[in-house]
């Protein structure tokens, strides 16, 4: 049974104006098409500069496509909305606010009372393991803890769709794995739809239902593959599964081909 599409990109093209060299003129995205179904976890994988963040920005409504359509439930996306949350690569917490005040910043600014937002805020602080650090300031936290606070902040308004731009890219391998496990646990509990950008093939295979591999600039969806592993997943089980090595090898082959193209395309 196929689920209804929430997000749909149809032949999306995007260029950026500005002071750029001839080698970088033209489309950043060209004819990008894919759908994101309700409750799905999709990873967008591709070389640096292929347009992954550009896609997230279009879906978030921070920017507009030049051609083609970016749709939410069949309607064009023109602006950000509360049903779409974003987690950036850097946690972007306000240094002068406590963890709790950072996490509750959105609802407070939209005029909700503490009674309305605090029960959920405490729940998410517990889910990400920061209940004892709610009064701490960001500079008193480790990198992984800061990213967990950013995750709780993104989840508090209960977005139906979460857009994540390499959120664990700056973390060490152990913290990253702990965050991946935490993310899949929360995702399964509250059934958000996630579009997650990563460079990391292992991360994509651990997290995703489906992986979209992008080409080098101009970015397109070059391959799309279903990840067959059952949930809940453990890294130990995955690496022992012969399909894991095979899938990783196939993806690596495509990613390296595209990375080589993007290096050839770099200006001298
Ligand atoms: N606002 C902008 N103005 C001009 N050029 C931009 C703008 N945003 C992105 N670009 C260009 O578009 C291309 C794609 O950028 P984007 O940030 O989407 O890549 P990416 O795939 O997310 O890369 P990375 O993996 O390094 O984050 C780059 O060449 C970048 O310079
Ligand atoms: Mg990016």
From TrEMBL:
Keywords, in A-Z order: ATP-binding, Cell membrane, Membrane, Nucleotide-binding, Transport
Designated name of the protein: ABC transporter ATP-binding protein
Alphabetical list of PROSITE patterns matching this protein: ABC_TRANSPORTER_1, ABC_TRANSPORTER_2
Species in which this protein is naturally found: Candidatus Accumulibacter contiguus
Annotated GO MF terms: ATP binding
Signal sequence coordinates: none
Source taxon at top rank: Bacteria
Similarity-based family: Belongs to the ABC transporter superfamily.
ABC transporter domain ranges (all copies): 7-241
């Amino acid at each position: 049974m196929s689920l209804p599409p929430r997000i749909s990109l149809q032949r999306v093209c995007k260029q950026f104006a500005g002071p750029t060299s001839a080698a970088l003129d033209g489309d950043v995205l060209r004819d990008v098409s894919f759908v994101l179904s309700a409750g799905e976890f999709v990873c967008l994988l591709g070389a640096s500069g292929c347009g992954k963040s550009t896609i997230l920005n279009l879906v978030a409504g921070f920017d507009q496509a030049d051609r083609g359509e970016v749709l939410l439930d069949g309607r064009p996306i023109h602006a950000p909305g509360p049903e779409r949350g974003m987690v950036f690569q850097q946690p972007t917490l306000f240094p002068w606010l406590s963890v709790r005040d950072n996490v509750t910043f959105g609802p407070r600014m939209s005029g909700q009372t503490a009674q309305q937002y605090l029960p959920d805020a405490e729940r998410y602080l517990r889910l990400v393991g920061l209940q004892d650090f709610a009064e701490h300031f960001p500079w008193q936290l480790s990198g992984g803890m800061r990213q967990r606070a950013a995750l709780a902040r993104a989840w508090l308004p209960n977005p139906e769709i979460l857009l994540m731009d390499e959120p664990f890219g700056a973390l060490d391998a152990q913290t990253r794995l702990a965050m991946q496990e935490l993310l899949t646990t929360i995702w399964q509990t509250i059934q958000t739809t996630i579009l997650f950008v990563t460079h990391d093939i292992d991360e994509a295979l651990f997290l995703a239902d489906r992986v979209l591999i992008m080409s080098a600039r101009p970015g397109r969806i070059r391959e799309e593959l279903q990840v067959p592993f059952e949930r809940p997943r453990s890294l130990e089980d995955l690496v022992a599964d012969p399909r894991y090595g095979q899938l990783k090898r196939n993806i690596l082959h495509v990613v390296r081909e595209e990375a080589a193209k993007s290096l050839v395309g770099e200006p001298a």
